[in-house]
Request: fold
Amino acid sequence: MTTAKFLFSDDTIVSFEVSGHSGAGEYGTDIVCSAVSSAVYMAANTIIEIMELSPEAEVRDGYFKFTMNLNDARKSKTITDGLYLHLSELQGQYPNNLKLERGVFNA
Reply:
């Protein structure tokens, strides 16, 4: 199962962490992993390359962590809210393969 954990400061996503493989298909052909990865990279690349913000990011096989300072998190709120919504919809379609968690960001 893939788990996506979002950490909030009030109503603003400051950090998200995605880990695990969904198990919806074989490695390389798993539609849920592909959808999650594509959405996460689109959000991260938009924040870094288009908005020119400088978050902390850690990426390795089956793991992605992205953390911003609160000011940058507020600037990119529309993008991270869109990512959260997209992954929420995927969770509804694939509840056995994707789980979303919410938490409070502690700076």
Q: What stands out?
A: The radius of gyration is 13 Å. Residues 14 and 34 are 24 Å apart (CA to CA). DSSP finds three helices and five strands in the chain. Residues 31-50 form the longest helix (20 residues).
